[in-house]
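Continuing the batch. This is chain 6 of the set; chains 1 through 5 are on the previous pages. Same settings as before, nothing changed between runs. Recording input and output for traceability.
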Amino acid sequence: MKKGGLFKTIRVFVVLFIALVIAVVLVVMRPKAERQVPVDKGLLVEVLPAKTQDVEIVVETFGTVAPRESLKLVAQVRGPIVEIDPVFKEGGFVPQKTRLIQIDPRTYELAAERRKVQIKQAQAELKSLEQQVVNLKARMKIARSDVKLAKNEYVRLKKLVDRKVIAQSQLDKTEQVYLASQERLQALDNQLALIAPQKEQLIAARDLARVMYQEAQLDLERSGIVAPFDGWVLEKTIEVGQHVNIGQQLGRIYSAGELDIEVRVPAKDLKWFPEDMGQKTPILADVVFKNSGSKTVWSGRVARVKAMMDQRTRTLPMVVEVDEAAISMQKNEQVGLRPGMFVTVLIKGKKIQKVFVLPRHLVYPGDVVFTVKEGALKSNPVQILRGHNDTVIIGEGLSEGDLIVKSPLSSPSEGQIVRLKPDGS
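Output for chain 6:
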């Protein structure tokens, strides 16, 4: 072996030896591992403090707006339509006492005039009959005098005949005159007796003519259809020139400013209203109409509660009124409250004091709310008075200032260690 190769071999062994010594020293001098128990710092949660508040219970329900007072316009007489007021069209406003429709009145005007003439005729006949009575009484007065004279003459001549001063034939003639005068008086008396029923017939004819005149006047009035109230036109079914018959529908109007909404309240929500609601205790309500993102609200009240509950749906029908004052307050509304609108009705019920209002997701199955006490979870069984949309109202089970866990808990348990987020309190 050459000398240079020997030195290289020696250097290799020296390097390996030094590396082995260093490795031994490192193994001998390494620190010993210490056993440590892991520390559970707890789940990081966010909390909110429980605060009591006074809450007015609002029962939300729905209904369709309907007119409180609507009227079908029906023809009470027949004839052609000669005039229609320009305001009488669907959606038009009609002031009270506006003559909306006029049926040709000429036939009824002539009928009324004919009845007036009949009344005058009956009155003239009555006057004539009264004059006949006066004349008869005067003639009877004369006839009585004539009878009296004839009788006296007959008695005088009879005495003379008894004394045989005059002949019997002269007495017979005087008796005939006496009997004739009595017959004339009896005829006049019979005529006077017949006057009474004739007068009654004429009075009845006059009264009948008056009744028929009133009927003709009524038909004349009915030929014009007049709006009995301020209202809106729902429907128009006739045109000028059209012939209408009795009972034919001409259109429909409803009273302006008087609208009702019938709603149905579930039986479980009736406890939030006073027992005499709609009678002595007024129940207020808000009527809400939503349209393309906009919302209009009118004030209303529960006017009456129907006597019978719907057995199929277990709901109690109520009628909410919206009066003219409430409607007229909305001057700048795009769409006014109109029949047929489907609206939301928020009925304001009792006020509850010192309750807790929480988001619904904070209440876990079994009606439990978790709070944080001394760094651990605590389960609080609560009494839910009412749930509505995304919130619940809690009456019992929480105290003022309790730290309610807002963060979602997948598997919460009593006593679980938790930490509060820095912004939690």
